[in-house]
Design brief:
Elements lengths: L5 E10 L3 H12 L6 E14 L2 E14 L4
Antiparallel strand pairs: 1-3, 2-3
Length: 70
Amino acid sequence: MDNSVYKVIELIGTSPESWEKAAANAIAQSSKTLRELRVAEVVELDMHLEEGKVLAYRAKIKVSFKYEGE
């Protein structure tokens, strides 16, 4: 196995339907600009509320990807 370095960033995905879809949305968007995504860890779940109703589910995730330097 080669020596590798990975960078970890936090993202927040949203969905009007579920936390699962919120996390998937974060991955789908980030994969458009980041290469070699390796692991995603859900670190927090919450909801955006208005007048006692859920408007959006939010999933904060940590995503790692291979660091290639600058």
